[in-house]
Amino acid sequence: MRIAQVSPLFESVPPRLYGGTERVVSFLTDALVELGHDVTLFASGDSHTDAELVACWPRALRLEGRSEQHLAVHLLQMERVMKRRADFDVVHFHTDPLQFPLMRREPLAHFTTLHGRLDLPELGPLVREFREMPLVSVSNAQRAPMPWAPWHGTVHHGLPCDLFEGRFARGEYLAFLGRISPEKRVDRAIAIANRLQMPLRIAAKVDNADKRYFDETIKPLLDSPWVEFIGEIDERQKQDFLGRAVALLFPIDWPEPFGLVMIEAMACGTPVVAWRHGSVPEVIEPGLTGAIVEDLDAASQAVLDAAKLDRRKCRERFEQRFTAERMARDYLAIYQALMQPSALVQAA
């Protein structure tokens, strides 16, 4: 099958540091190539892939400090996709709804995976206007704000089996990995560490939009003797960071669409203690790969219980549920269905 993958240009594929969507695009693209398909990736020029790369901008926009001017660059990317449209059996977009007006006018098998939250007030009217656009969700929970949308499936994210190795020795500290923002609630992680008097290591990115929140709300909490703030880490550092943790804390306070870091931890054999929001109940199996909690008391107890879980089983569940090959095969089934004559008028 001839497949186009269209990635956002904010980060390279894969990202050098933080970046969920572009990381998933990387894993999916290379897994499809491994399965024998002809794949073309439209991404930034500093990307690395087993597919044919069409460089739509020289470098990732965030690294260039050009994220605020992204619209012009993404429109250029769409034009390059359209010029190559005859080369593909299916085009898979990861660029939110930017391509909807173009695809409305093109008889081309395509769909869009929506990677973000869908409860923003502007999204409902837009999706209703373009209700014929085929969509795929990354969790069933993600669909809650618009169950009426033209969904053609849900595909959970996956990682290459060899990206991380399971580490089965007893962990040494609690871990928080991701981004500092109000909805990620690193303050809850710090509170748990202080309650239990357990070391907490925080590996997190601070966006410019969240710098004031970090400076005013989180930075004072870092004075705790139990807390170490590391900053943003790359893919190579994740193995050691996650693998040596007693548990990953995922104390979110928002409708998380998926939460890639949860399966990264599982791949390392590290259980996850997560708040019951968004996709968490679809990913975490209590008593096996971690715990699902709703308050600090339950979270503190769950950390103590997590230290007793079988880390090998945690890794095994990752291999059974969240590999890149499984993700690629799930998407292939959607590609094939979309290529049928009635696909664009019947949503699953």
TrEMBL record:
Residues 171-318 form the Glycosyl transferase family domain. Gene3D superfamilies: Glycogen Phosphorylase B (3.40.50.2000). It comes from the Bacteria. InterPro entries: Glyco_trans_1, Glyco_trans_4-like_N, Glycosyltransferase_grp1. Residues 18-119 form the Glycosyltransferase subfamily 4-like N-terminal domain. This is Glycosyltransferase family 4 protein. It comes from Ideonella lacteola.
